[in-house]
Design brief:
249 residues, eight-stranded parallel β-barrel, 10 helices, 8 strands, globular, binds phosphoenolpyruvate
Length: 249
C-alpha cells in the first residue's frame, strides 16, 4: 500500500464565533513545529473570511463544510464553491452524514457538489460511512462501495480528491471502530478505487473520521490505508488539533 502525505482536516460544524479566531492563531503558531503533514480547517461560513485572514502566510489550508452545485443564483442560504474559492478556500467537505441525513442529500447530490467543487478549483472531501444498523447487518462494505460508486465523480481520476470514511455511529459519540475494522474498510475502498480508476487511485487520499482525539490518533492514523483524519469536536481546540496532527507527522 502506498504511503501518502497525511492530511488532518478540522470540521468545525456549526461551532465557532469571532472569539474562536484565537484558536486559529494558536494553530498557526503550533503548526510551525510540524512537518510531513497537511492541515486544513473548515470553519462555519460566517467565519471563513476571518479565518482566511488569520491563516494568511501559514501552511494551514481552508475549507468550506458544504457547497451548492450551482455557481450562483436564487438559492437562499446556500454557498457556491466559487464563493468558497473566492475567500481563499482550497477544500470543501461534501456528503457529510449530517448533510446526507439532515438535508436528504443523496449520492447523486453529493456527486454533483463534488463536480461543482472541481469546477471551482476546490478539492472535495467526499464523506462516506455506514450506520450502526448497516454494520450490524453486515452491510458495511456494500454500503461504502455503493456510496463510492454514486458519490465520486469520474473526474476524481484526474482531479485532486479526498475521501473520508466516517462511520456514522462513531461521529461525535466517543466510540471508534477497532483498527481492524478501519483497516478492512480502507482496504476495500482502495480496491474499489483501483478497480475504477486504475493507477490514478493512488492520488486519492483516504481519511478516517469519527471521534478522533489526541488519545487515539496515533493508533488510528497508523492503520494501513489511512492517509489522515477528518476531525470534528477535537478540531475546535488548537491543542487537541495539533496533537492529532503531531500523531501523523
Ligand atoms: C465529523 O463530524 O466529521 C467528525 C469526525 O466528528 P467527531 O470527530 O466529533 O466525531
Amino acid at each position: 500500500m502506498t504511503t501518502r502525505r497525511k492530511l488532518v482536516a478540522g470540521n468545525w460544524k456549526m461551532n465557532g464565533l469571532k472569539a474562536s479566531l484565537s484558536e486559529v492563531r494558536a494553530m498557526v503558531d503550533g503548526a510551525k513545529a510540524l512537518s510531513g503533514v497537511d492541515l486544513s480547517i473548515c470553519p462555519p461560513a460566517t467565519l471563513i473570511s476571518a479565518v482566511a485572514s488569520a491563516l494568511e502566510g501559514s501552511a494551514i489550508g481552508l475549507g468550506g463544510q458544504d457547497c451548492h452545485a450551482e455557481r450562483s443564483g436564487a438559492f437562499t442560504g446556500d454557498i457556491s464553491p466559487e464563493m468558497l474559492a473566492d475567500t481563499g478556500a482550497g477544500f470543501v467537505i461534501v456528503g457529510h452524514s449530517e448533510r446526507r441525513a439532515g438535508h436528504g442529500e443523496t449520492d447523486a447530490v453529493v456527486a454533483a457538489k463534488a463536480s461543482a467543487a472541481y469546477r471551482a478549483g476546490l478539492t472535495p472531501i467526499i464523506c462516506v460511512g455506514e450506520s450502526l444498523e448497516q454494520r450490524d447487518r453486515g452491510e458495511t462494505l456494500a454500503v461504502i462501495a455503493g456510496q463510492l460508486a454514486g458519490s465520486i465523480p469520474d473526474a476524481a481520476a484526474t482531479t485532486p480528491t479526498v475521501i473520508a470514511y466516517e462511520p456514522i455511529w462513531a461521529i461525535g459519540t466517543g466510540r471508534t471502530p477497532t483498527t481492524a475494522q478501519v483497516a478492512e474498510v480502507h482496504a476495500a475502498m482502495v480496491a474499489t478505487l483501483q478497480q475504477r480508476f486504475g493507477a490514478a487511485a493512488e492520488g486519492i487520499r483516504l481519511l478516517y473520521g469519527g471521534s478522533v482525539k489526541p488519545e487515539n490518533a496515533r493508533e488510528l492514523m497508523h492503520v494501513p490505508g489511512v492517509d489522515g483524519a477528518l476531525v470534528g469536536g477535537a478540531s475546535l481546540k488548537a491543542g487537541d488539533f495539533l496533537k492529532i496532527a503531531a500523531a501523523c507527522a
